[in-house]
Structure formats: C-alpha cells, structure tokens
Amino acid sequence: MSIKKINKDGFNSFVDGIIENNRVFGVQAKGDKFDFAPLGSATDLTLDYDVTLGPPKKYFPPPTETLLTFDETGTFESQHDCEPFVLIGVHPYDMVAINQMDQIFAQDNNDTHYFARRDNAVIIACDVVTPSKNVFASVMGTATVKDGFDILLTDIGDGYIAEAATEKGEAILEIANGKEPADSDIKKRQQVWENNEKQLNKHSLNCSPQQLPKLLENAYDHNVWEEKAKTCFSCGSCNQVCPTCYCFNVCDDINWDMQSGKRDRVWDGCLLDGFTKVAGDHEFRCNRADRFRHRIFRKAKYVPDKIDGQIACVGCGRCVNACLPDIANPINIYNTLLEDISV
Ligand code: SF4
Ligand code: SF4
C-alpha cells in the first residue's frame, strides 16, 4: 500500500480534491469545541483538535434511522443507507471503538443497516496532536491504532505522513500531491506514536485494563454504586457521548393515513430511566444505582466477555467532560474498587 508525505501547504488541495468527488464529513471547530460535521471546504477542517463533542459513531448507527417501512397488508420494505462517504479526522481511540462496534454488530444477526454504512465509508484517521484534558487512551492501549481505517494521517510538523491501509484508501491517496517519505520522516512518525502511547494519560488506572473483568466479578455489591448514584441525574449524557455505547430502542411510527408506517431505531442509554421498561410496564432496573453499575459492568465485564476481553472504554474522556456531577469517570470507579478488592 502507498505511503506519502504531503507537505502542509499542499494538504488543503488534497482535502478539496476529496470533497470534489465525495460526500465528506470532517472535524470542525464550534466555538472553542470541536465536532464532526459535513465538510464543504478544506479550510474548515481541523486536525489538531483535542476531542470532538460527540464520537464518530453517529455515522454508523445514526441517532435516528428508519429500518423499514410497512403497510396494512403486511408488506414491508427494508431501508438501507448505502450512500458512500468519507470521514476525515478520526482519532485512534475512536477508531478502536468503531472496530469494536464492527465486531458487536457482526455478532448473532449480522446488522445489515449498520454494515450498509460501514462498508460504504472511507475512514481517514489521524493521530492525536493535542491531548484533551481528560483523555486516558494511553492507559487503555488505544492511543495509537493499527487497523480499521483506510488511511492514517500523522502530523510530523512540516507535513503529514499519509499511509493507505485498504484499496479504498489507496484510491483516495492517489490524488494527493506527495512524495515518498524519507527515513527521517518515518522516524518522526514513530516518535509521535511513542509519545502518544505515553502522554494521553490524564487519569491513571491502578491495575492493568485486562484485570478489570476480574475486578468487577467481585464488585457487584460494593457501596460505590449507591454512593456515586446519589448525585446522578440519569441524564444519559455519559452514554450519548461514548464511542462504544451502541444501545438502541426500536419504535413503530404509524402514518396519519393509519394504513402505513415506519420502524425507527433510535439511540438509547442504560443510564436513562425507562431503558429497561418492557411490556406490561415492568421495569427491571428502576433503581439509579443499578443503572449506574450496569454502565460500568458493560464497559469492563459484559462486552469483554462478548469480544475477546476487549474493554468497552477507549479512554476518550468524553463522559468525564459531559457529566455535571463529575461521577462518570470509569477510572475513578475502578480505582475506588481497587482500594477494597484485590485482583
Ligand atoms: S466510558 Fe467514557 S472515557 Fe470510556 S470510551 Fe466511553 S465516554 Fe470515553
Ligand atoms: S453518570 Fe453523569 S452523565 Fe451519566 S447519567 Fe449520571 S449524571 Fe448523567
């Protein structure tokens, strides 16, 4: 696969070349924050951002999508969004989260709605330049990423090293005006990786991530859940901003003609009251502390049990930023448990 060094002054024409022929979403400034949004010009793209408000997961299972339409005869038609797009600026920890979601949505019933988007996406990942105030990707082993993307960009100061990892990435990289990187450029990229593997560490964990499932096995009845949940608003922000949270609700919406309708899938969150409400108005996790515990168990016990021990927290720090009472940081919870439970 190709690898090119693209000088900073030639980078915008590369991005504008991508925009000319594709539907593109990229990271842009919103005041002093950043987020993914439709990209109309390379000058709007920001790659030295710290963290985006929301994760790029919104392009795969979007917050709301129609799964199928139906009518009174029982006829239904599945809806799939197959329109290709390019996503520019995905940080390594978010790429790891997308890789996890790929495995989750392929399990049991392969989710064709998810994969219609995923298969038609080109992901241009970029290494972190500016660590965010609550990132702990180094701790979780997600500060760099080796697969899942189509192109990886690394800012080495006077330019970007752009390396294609797939045929789709190769086709995009063809339009870049670049040259083969010198050995010194490759060394600079290696240095960026080594620095990020150490420096995206605003919170430290007092055990290895691999020990977390064992820690939680003995933590179900710990008082940390009640203590923390005392100030939880059940707002669900920690779920919504998390790149590894993928829970959804499915709702039927009948049209005014009362003869046809659609079935929508919408994001849901385990911290929200009503998340576990089922037919007959039964709710089996109506206690806030139980919901609070469930989120952490899902991150470090239930998902690792499903996908080869991978912890469903990539250390992006978004939940820490988003939680008003400052109780959502998984690292604080693990470290509190470690004071009482040995692993
Ligand atoms: S739990 Fe928090 S820090 Fe971990 S991936 Fe989710 S939002 Fe990021
Ligand atoms: S832990 Fe924080 S962000 Fe999550 S639901 Fe409770 S108050 Fe909201």
Describe this structure in words.
- With 343 residues, this protein is of the alpha+beta class.
- It folds into 2 domains: 3-69 and 78-199, no CATH class; 209-340, no CATH class.
- It is built from 12 helices and 13 strands.
- The chain has helices at 8-21, 92-106, 112-119, 137-140, 167-173, 183-199, 212-217, 224-229, 237-240, 288-306, 318-322, 330-340; strands at 3-7, 24-30, 33-38, 64-71, 76-78, 85-90, 121-126, 151-155, 159-164, 248-254, 260-267, 277-278, 282-283.
- The strands form 3 sheets. Strands 1-9-8-7-6-2-3 form a 7-stranded mixed β-sheet, sandwiched between helices. Strands 5-4-11-10 form a 4-stranded antiparallel β-sheet, with no helix packed on it. Strands 12-13 form a two-stranded antiparallel sheet.
- A hairpin with a 3-residue loop joins strand 8 and strand 9.
- The termini are far apart.
- The mean pLDDT is 97.
- It binds iron/sulfur cluster (2 copies).
- Residues 232-238, 271, 322-323, 325, 327-328 line the site of one iron/sulfur cluster.
